[in-house]
Specification:
elongated; alpha+beta
Length: 160
C-alpha cells in the first residue's frame, strides 16, 4: 500500500478493513473487504472508495434487484467525488464494466424459467412472467451464479 492508501484507510477509521479475494461492503460488521494486491492501481483505490461509499451512504440492505442497481450507481457517484479528494484517476470504462456486471446479473435473474421472456420482480422479491405466468425466486447473494427456482402456487407467500 502506498501512503495515499493509508490516508484513505486512516480517514475512515470507523470502518474495519480486511484483505480478501474481492471488494465488498459488509454492513453487518461495518467491514470493507478489499483486494490488497490491487491497491497500487487507481482502479483498486477507486474500488476501495466505492465500498467505503456504500457505508457513507448508509447502504445496509436493498428491497429488490433494481434497488440494488440503484445503490450501486449511487456508490459509484460518491466514489467519483471521493476520488477527486484522494487524487485517484477515474476510469469511466472501469466503472461501466462494474455496473455492466450488475446489469448482466439482473438480466439473467429476470429470464423466465419457462419461456425465456425477460420479466419483472414484485414487491415480495419473486419474479413474474407477464407472458406465461410463471413465478420464480432467486437467491439474495450477488456473488453466486444465477440460480432461478420455480415457485409453485403452494409456495407463494400470502397476498395482503
Amino acid at each position: 500500500m502506498t501512503s495515499s492508501d493509508h490516508n484513505i484507510l486512516d480517514d475512515f477509521s470507523h470502518l474495519k478493513f480486511k484483505a480478501g479475494r474481492r471488494f465488498a461492503w459488509s454492513p453487518s460488521n461495518k467491514t470493507v473487504w478489499y483486494e490488497a494486491d490491487t491497491l497500487d492501481s487507481d482502479d483498486g483505490k477507486l474500488a476501495l472508495l466505492h465500498e467505503i461509499s456504500h457505508s457513507l451512504l448508509n447502504h445496509y440492505s436493498y428491497k429488490s434487484d433494481l434497488h440494488l442497481l440503484k445503490l450501486e450507481v449511487e456508490a459509484w457517484t460518491k466514489a467519483r467525488s471521493l476520488a477527486a479528494e484522494y487524487k485517484v484517476e477515474v476510469d469511466d470504462r472501469y466503472i461501466d464494466d462494474c455496473l455492466e456486471s450488475y446489469r448482466d446479473w439482473l438480466y439473467r435473474r429476470s429470464i423466465c424459467v419457462n419461456c425465456g421472456t425477460n420479466s419483472f420482480q414484485d414487491e415480495k422479491g419473486l419474479y413474474n412472467c407477464h407472458i406465461c405466468g410463471a413465478r420464480w425466486s432467486v437467491p439474495d447473494s450477488q456473488v453466486c451464479r444465477v440460480i432461478r427456482k420455480k415457485v409453485t402456487k403452494k409456495e407463494l407467500p400470502a397476498m395482503s
